[in-house]
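Input record (one chain):
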Amino acid sequence: MIRQALSERITETDFRLRGKEPGRLENFSDAIFALAITLLLISTSPPTNFEQVKRFAYELLPFLVCITLIMLIWHEHFQFYLRYGLRNSRMIVWNTLFLAIVLFYVYPLKFLTKIIILFPVGYLLGDQALLDDLKKMINPQDMGQLMIIYGFGAASVFLVLRQMYSYVLSKADELGLSELERLDTRTSIRTNFLMAVVPVASVVLSAIFINSWLAGPIAGFVYFLYTPIMFAHGRRADKKRKELVEKLNDTPPK
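The corresponding structure, as predicted from the sequence alone:
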């Protein structure tokens, strides 16, 4: 299994890995992530003519984007259990909710990614048949509702992850978290909160411009805010971590 193979290879000097031996909870979670990836392909039937072969080739691009996002979420989940290894009843509840949201998130993610990527491809290649099929998928006035559904799913994934990290922090003494591990955990809480803020903002703007063709472009543009927000957060977190490491090593800040 990928999780076990990675667990055996990963070594962290600043974080004690309490979950290097995957339990049944992690194995069940991996099965759900595998199901989520399967759902990305479940509606794709084998091509029977060349036009369908071209369409299948086009859909490779949105599929790669979707599977990349799913794997990034999986890696966050993998790292969480590798570091903390907490498997009590409360964590089972949070994990179940997290997995349910991931499964919900798959279809809106696939639908939206297909529209965003294949429309430019259709225009660049002059494939009118592809453009006609995409236009039948959704009316421009309905994009606001689609962005609300997608934003709700994306925000929920990161808010649940935030709660999982918050619960771990409340068990810091029980888990024996060091000062540096507590700082990293608080950083993860803020990271997932900020990751949820952007889709929430997108949902709000979608609701404001609902039933307007402007809803899609405006709500979609909000996601570009990830870059400056996460860059600023990362710099601040790295600075705090470096200061704490220097303090723990009795080294004066430079």
